[in-house]
Structures are given as structure tokens and as C-alpha cells.
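Recap from last week: sequence in, structure out.
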Amino acid sequence: MVKIDNVHIQGVGGIYDLYLEFNDGVNVICGANGVGKSTILTSINEFFNRQKDTLKRNAKCECGSIELNFTYNESHRSVTRPVEDFIPEVGNATIGVHIKCMNASPYLLGFNSERDIPYQKINGLLCDPDNKHYDRVNWVEYKDIKNWFINRYTFSDKDDSLEFEHKKNYEIAKKILAY
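Predicted C-alpha cells:
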């Protein structure tokens, strides 16, 4: 049987420094959006499952690391892995750290949240796409969401820079995404 004793995450995702000790039985990780719940789960999951490396170094840290301490068949084990890449397009090779717990593998359950909006690098402020073919309804495609917010944020406090509907949609979007 595998029991995760604790995990120490430093400089990974939105987490600067976090040490979690786990209880026997079921543990619940809860918190507001963006605090690192998915980062905690992915940090643990990537040790036990061969998959693409999706963890990224915290932008404010020079390097990141994850230390996992667990018990397998009454034997205490500790593994550590660095997290060096920050740019999402870099470092997506299958990770090298993989714990082989052959007898326990049918009992390991790994899961993660699915992100619908992929990372998108912004090189500068762009105009909104031409959406005239949508008849007065302004649709925003996934690839345009980040730029849409940047434009609205930049110009929302400037007189006559955005139409009334654009300002109103921006305020609604801020309220929805704040939760």
C-alpha cells in the first residue's frame, strides 16, 4: 500500500513555498481559485505516472522543486525533482522521475483538472479582431480572450475609448472570473 506522508513544493506554479502533511485516510484540498490546488495534485501525480511534464516554475523563483515523502510496504521513501522551466512550450518531455510501485499500481488513482484555455504569449497590444460577420454580437474566441481582457483593462478608464457595451461586458466578465 502507498501512503503519501507529505509533500514540499517550492517555486512551482503559483506556489512559493508549501509544506503539506497528509493524514491517514481521505484528505481534502480546498481553496479559492488560483491558490495552487491543481498544482498540488499534479505535483504528486507526476511522480507516480509517466506523462508530459505540465508543471512550471514560479516566475518569481529562480528554480522550483518538489519533494515527496511516502510509505510503500512499510518502507519510507523520499524523492525530489527540480522544476526549471517557466515557459509552457518548453520542457514538455516525459518526466524522468517515476516511482515504480508495481504491486500498488492498480490502487493508485491520478487525476487533474482540465484547462480549456491554453497558455498564450502576448507580444504586444493588438486590436480586437474584426467581427462584423457576427451582426452586432461581439464573440470572443479562445485565442483572443487574453488580448480582449488586456484591451478592456487598458482602456476601461479612458473616456470615449470603449463603447458602452464593451465596458459593461468587461465589468461582467471581471465579476464572473473573480470567483
